[in-house]
Amino acid sequence: MVAAVALAGSAKEVGVIVAACAASGTLLLPRPGQRAVAALVAFTLTPVLVLAELWSSRQVEHLRGHGTLAALVGVLAVGLMVGLAVLIARKPVTFPLLAVGTLPFRIPVESGTDSANLLLPLYVVVGAGVLAYAWERLRPTRMRAAAAGNGSHGLPDLRERKPGRLELALSIAVVLYALQASYSADFEQAVKNVAFFYVPFVLLFKLLTTTRWSRQLLVACFGVALALGLVFAGVGYLEYATRHVLWNQKVIASNQFESYFRVNSLFFDPSIYGRYLALVMIGLAATLVWPRRGRDIGYATAALAALWGGLLLSFSQSSYGALLVGLVLLAGLRWDPRPVLFGAAVAAAAGLVVVVIDPGVVNLNLGSRHTVNRASSGRFRLVRGGVDLFSARPVTGFGSGSFSKEYRKREGVGSATASTASHTIPLTIAAEQGVLGLAAYVFVVISAFGLLFRGLGALRQRGPPVPELVARAFVAAAFTALFFHTLVYADFLEDPIAWALLAVGAVLARGESARLPEPEPQLAVAAP
């Protein structure tokens, strides 16, 4: 941490690096008390960084003009956080349920003429979890028991698992991102990414891996995700029936000129809405390929049909692809993977033949760069611009969070909302962080897949499957689908669902879930 701070030039840059290092310390430091202090430092420092960077902006000026109201909202938020912390300290099982329930909710925050969609409910839950975590590890009775080598005294066990390669990879990625923010062409965006995504999501990962998971808790968490998915799909159906999208002026405007009507439910982005539904559908599919009771098949099929309709109305091609990837992977884990992969390859080859023979079917002219760009919704131009940026600075890149600003400058794009990423996460990382960032990204991906898929070949053995293995299969398939989605869209480590899947998958893969008597299944026994 000292070496990292020495590389920074200003107080803001130092603050960003300290916050990232503190967050990483919650994963890597050796003692519970140290991890608790690091978590408190990381969580309290991030809002200070945001305010410091945006102090003279229109957003903060608007808040300063309504100081009493802002202070009242802050007091209410802190009070809610403390109340939830007391609940979590008494019943730790409530944290993962609250976390799963708030993962998809982004609240529009209006500040003057600007707005942002922030994961405010999740931040409150994570803050409450940090307070509960720190209280359990720093209160005097706990520390005396730990010093005496006694974890009893009626208190939950202090022991936490040792960090593995995945925790190391995630820590390197987060700290490197903060370091490379110091020379970013868009330092403000880098600060926002660190404060709104990386630091709170590291804390979320830590708290979820500390949770004592059981089969009951896995089923309950997936039940929450499924219920939310059905509600989101219902809102999407209502939008389609009324031809009225609740928000996002860009989607509203495009619906007026396109031959189809695209919905986004309670999400700002239709593709993020589609991604969420696809991940829930993969969990339901796991209950079909490893069924345990006949009526579960009927319930899961009905829910899949409802979610599939909602996914179709999002018109998110990237989400369709992510769902297909997840389903193919589940089939490969359930049966012999060779015919499954062969069938998928044949289908992909048939699609390629159609595009080559009659590209007009997909509104594509392979000889025209303009039509290729239009058919890919502008992604071809973004990818080409990302390649140019990487070629200009291949080693260090232009700095964290700089893609949009540098792309607009090089391409002569005037609108600040024209692009936010290349819609191909590896390319975004390459342009912003160069080969250093790419190396950290590859380390995370290899560590994640190596851990999630370890030992899943046992699912193809005869006999009833072990419920923990089925749950791991769902997590692995869902993470793979999300990873694919990031290759053709956006948001990898900027998506809290990715961190949640990694946390649950890490606990299950390392055999650290609580071995409790198996409950009578209600709907799905295979899904966390």
**What portion of residues is helical?**
55-70%
- Which class best fits the helix and strand makeup? mainly alpha
Query: Radius of gyration over alpha carbons?
Result: 23 Å
Strand content: under 5%
Count of DSSP H/I helices: 22
Order of helices and strands: HHHHHHEEHHHHHHHHHHHHHHHH
Distance between the termini: 36 Å
Give the quaternary arrangement of the chains: single chain
Q: Mean of residue pLDDT?
A: 81
Q: Could you walk me through the main structural features you see in this protein, from its secondary elements to its overall organization?
A:
With 528 residues, the protein is mainly α. It folds into 2 domains: 2-210, no CATH class; 215-509, no CATH class. The protein has helices at 2-6, 11-28, 32-54, 58-64, 67-90, 94-102, 120-138, 140-147, 165-180, 187-210, 215-242, 249-255, 270-289, 294-314, 317-334, 337-357, 369-375, 379-392, 403-411, 425-452, 467-488, 496-509; strands at residues 107-111, 114-118. The protein has a two-stranded antiparallel sheet with strand order 1-2. The longest helix is centred in the middle third of the chain and has 28 residues, at 215-242. Mean pLDDT is 81; it is low at 4-8, 150-158 and 515-528.
Describe, in short, the structure shown.
The protein has 2 domains: 2-210, no CATH class; 215-509, no CATH class.
Secondary structure layout plus pairing:
Elements: H1 2-6, H2 11-28, H3 32-54, H4 58-64, H5 67-90, H6 94-102, E1 107-111, E2 114-118, H7 120-138, H8 140-147, H9 165-180, H10 187-210, H11 215-242, H12 249-255, H13 270-289, H14 294-314, H15 317-334, H16 337-357, H17 369-375, H18 379-392, H19 403-411, H20 425-452, H21 467-488, H22 496-509
Antiparallel strand pairs: 1-2
